[in-house]
Amino acid sequence: MKMSDKVVNNQPNSENKITKKELKRIFFRWFLAGQVGWNYERMQGLCYCYSIMPVLRKLYKKEEELKKAVKRHLQFFNTEPDMAHFILGANAAIEEREGTDGEEASTAIKTGLMGPFAGVGDTIFGVIIPTVILSIGANMALNGSSVGVWIWLIWAFVRFWLRWKFTEIGYVQGTKLIATMSDRIQSLTEAASILGLTVIGALIPTVVTPKVPFVFQSGEVTLEVQQVLDQIMPALIPVILVAFVYWLLGKEKMTSTKAIWILLMASIILGGLGVLGT
Amino acid sequence: MEITAWQIIILSIYAFVAIYDSLETNIGLNRPIQAGFFTGLILGDVTLGLAVGATLQLMVLGVGTYGGASIPDYMSGAVIGTAFGIMSGLGVEFAIGIAVPIGLFLVQLDILARFTNTFFQHRADKYAEDGNFDGVERMNLLGIIPWGLSRAIPVAIALIFGPEIVDALVNITPQWLLNGLSVAGKVLPALGIAILLRYLPAKRYLPYLLIGFALAAFLQVSMIGVAIVGLALGLLVYQRSREQLSIAGKGGVDEDE
Fold first, then answer.
1. A245 and B129: CB-CB below 8 Å?
2. Using a CB-CB distance cutoff of 8 angstroms, which residues of chain A are in contact with residue B132?
3. What is the rounded CA–CA span in Å between residue B240 and residue A54?
4. Which residues of chain B make contact with A31, given a CB cutoff of 8 A?
5. FRET label pair with A213: which of A203, B17, B71, B176, CA 20 to 30 Å apart?
6. Which residues of A are less than 8 Å from B237 in CB distance?
7. How confident is the model over B214-225, as pLDDT tens digits?
8. B212, A266: Cβ pair inside 8 Å?
9. Is B150 an interface residue toward A (CB < 8 Å)?
10. Cα–Cα distance, A46 to B20 (Å, whole number)
11. Given pLDDT bands bounded at 50, 70 and 90, which one contains residue B94?
């Protein structure tokens, strides 16, 4: 931001200065209603407009200006909801500094950041963290303990705090956000993937647990197939199963829904025949 | 057991709140594991609810609504499945056998809700044109209704008409099918794991997958223990990559404006 621009613009006075109060309102609006208006046409567009409205109302006192700004923010928007707080914060800063001249910058930061942020957010908030927490939780639940249910609740509070911090950081950094975030994000995603994969590795023998109840009998000699398999390697069947489904998902036109049906049918047939058991 | 009217009402409200929670507050109500737990709590069999919820949960670990994609509704599936499992007395296998197809079927209502909200978007456009900014804000909030009803209505219908359906199902379900379904309960988590492996850079980080597997399969380390090892490995890699970046940064061009 260069000083000269500031002079040309409506001089920033207390009238159109964004305070912590407005930031909090953006934060709560997105936190509580950032996806309720989700629709196929413009996805989170309506929700974004709703969330940034307190800032727009504060900055644009003339109805024509406000109308223009509202229409601008009703356009298409879609990203990962946690990461969206960065964009809302940065966008508030731009609207505050540039005002009606900031149309392009404001649209640019929204459309420029929503893609990459969605990618990182989905990996970290959508996949890795739920995987780790819910793996622990589901494992406990299968043993009859509800402790895992409460671990998620603790995470929910941490996430609440994080989302507020994201809003603040976004506001303070403004347009610099892109540069400061990009390299750190790469390292973070990498580290998170490693944590995720380690846990997934442990999940395979723990939660995929069909057994082979088949017993060979010839005269006096009986041979329990499961025992033989265990001697080769514990959890051999789970590994084969996961590898098979992984391969299946890589096939063209295969979807996870189709894969569910295939597995369901195969389990019923193999279970019915007594090849697989529990 | 018989299900009572207040139980049906509570579970329907739960479904309404759960989908809102998954969109916004994220305390986890929309996760199958929580939904199973809650249903079990209301209907008096927490262990069964947890088992149903956990199995469904493991199936969909890596499945998310990325970019607005609709995914099977295993929250409603867990509620309905757990309820049927308890009502019929046939237990976990039966419950999962019901929950999976229901969850797959209900994805249609998710699509319907997302579609219905387009209407509110267009109303908001019109209000913006008229300078009715309160109207714009109201349209976003109204979006809660299609979302909530897309979950609450099927749960209510299934539970109201459930007892007769359950009786009919119990009579026609043969033992071999129940055996097969219990095998499915043990096999289906493989899908959740495979989806995750497809999503994450599994080939590049194969060693970490092997470490996790060996810890659990050979050393019987608990899930939390493995998560701690995974965290340590992740932190090491994070630190190293930060160091490398800062070394590269020193030699590079001054990046400040």
1. no
2. none
3. 43
4. 24-25
5. A203
6. 190-191, 194
7. 999 999 998 889
8. no
9. no
10. 16
11. confident
The rounded distance, in Å, linking the Cα atoms of A208 and A235 is 9
Global pTM reads 0.81
Q: What are phi and psi of A211, to 5 degrees?
A: -120, 165
Residue ranges of alpha helices (H) inside chain B are: 5-23, 32-43, 46-59, 74-88, 91-130, 133-142, 144-160, 162-172, 175-187, 189-199, 206-217, 223-251
Tokens of A57: 């109302």
Q: How many Å apart are CA A261 and CA A108, to the nearest integer?
A: 44
Give CA–CA dist B34/A156, Å, rounded.
Answer: 13
| Residue A215: strand pairing partners | A224
Work out the minimum CA distance from A21 to partner chain B, whole angstroms. 19
Q: How many CB atoms lie within 10 A of CB A77?
A: 20
Domain residue limits, chain A: 20-204, 209-272
Q: What is the 3-state secondary structure (H, E, C) of A197-216?
A: HHHHHHHHHHHCCCECCCEE
B172 CA to chain A: closest CA distance, Å? 16
Look-up of token digits 């705090």:
A161
| Of the candidates B71, B59, B63, the residue with the CA atom closest to the CA atom of residue B96 | B59
pLDDT score of A181 more than 80: no
User: What is the C-alpha separation between A208 and B18, in angstroms, rounded?
Assistant: 28
Chain A closest CA to B81's CA: distance in Å? 16
The reply to whether B74 touches chain A by the CB within 8 Å rule is no
Compute how many other C-beta atoms are within 10 angstroms of the C-beta atom of residue B230. 27
Best interface-test mutation with B: which of A49, A197, A212 has the largest number of B CBs within 10 A? A197
For residue A55, give both structure tokens.
Answer: 């800032």
